[in-house]
Description:
Elements: H1 2-5, H2 9-25, H3 34-51, H4 56-72, H5 77-90
Helix pairs in contact: 2-3, 2-4, 4-5
Amino acid sequence: MIFEWFRAREFTNFGVKLADFLAERIPNKSPKKAPEALAKLFAQVDDFKQSHKFNLYKKAKLGNAFKWRLVDHGYTDEFIEEMTKELLLRL
């Protein structure tokens, strides 16, 4: 069904959840502590991928929610762009 293609609320919520997860584990001042937190983050992404059907629109909604939530948490533009790129490459 065509309307199912646009149902992306769950993907948006997951993007926000991922950004909050990252913000809890990597303080703004020291993103160098990332390897362990990123491994856990990407494990969550892999689990989500297994149980959800993605399309281009849903990927974009997830990535956009993730990016803007990181902005809200006060990360640098460089860090946000790199993290969002890594997330989207995982999807």
